[in-house]
Design a protein that fits this description.
Length: 195
């Protein structure tokens, strides 16, 4: 009698263990908890975002036709907007700059970024206001946003190309956005630089 009960219980126990393993595997895939302990540091030089200066471009001041000295045209990037990251879902710090490179391309630069790693993180430029605390966690997908791409690393300084038709006047903030859970890890309000 006991042997029969054991035989009937085995398929039920095996089924329960199989379901438990599937649920555990799905949870590991979805939450990726190991990323909380694994940092990805990316250090990109700013000159990655700068167009190289042509050999014929002047590097020294040159006289204009009237004999006065004209300073050389800067070959480095022009800062269009800046911001300081604040924490949302995860402790986040660093600064954001939007730059126009010498060739006219637009670049979003994260400098000294320090945040948690996580699944499916992106860098978004949005029209949402930056709110401190939990009020700011989920506002960035409510309106317009442009994705600059997947976050390259949760630490370091990184460059992200913005689309050629990007219109900075339409956007006011940058968010490190977790697409998996629709939450901001941290965000910065953009202050436009006077022209």
């Amino acid at each position: 009698m006991n042997r029969m009960l054991r035989r009937r219980a085995r398929p039920w126990v095996i089924g329960l263990v199989a379901v438990g393993l599937v649920v555990a595997a799905a949870g590991m895939y979805w939450f990726q908890p190991w990323k909380l302990w694994v940092d990805e540091t990316v250090q990109e030089d700013l000159n990655v975002a700068v167009a190289p200066q042509s050999p014929s471009a002047p590097t020294q001041p040159s006289p204009d036709p009237e004999g006065t000295t004209v300073p050389p045209t800067p070959s480095g990037p022009q800062t269009l907007a800046t911001g300081t990251l604040i924490s949302h879902e995860h402790e986040t710090s660093g600064t954001v700059r939007i730059l126009r490179a010498a060739d006219g391309t637009l670049v979003l630069r994260l400098e000294d970024l320090d945040t948690s790693n996580g699944p499916d993180l992106h860098v978004w430029v949005t029209d949402a206001p930056v709110k401190p605390g939990k009020d700011g966690w989920s506002v960035f997908d409510d309106g317009a946003y442009v994705s600059a791409g997947k976050l390259k690393g949760n630490k370091g300084s990184q460059n992200y190309a913005l689309p050629a038709d990007f219109d900075l006047s339409r956007y006011s903030s940058v968010s490190i956005w977790c697409a998996r859970f629709s939450v901001s890890f941290g965000a910065a309000e953009l202050a436009k630089t006077p022209a």
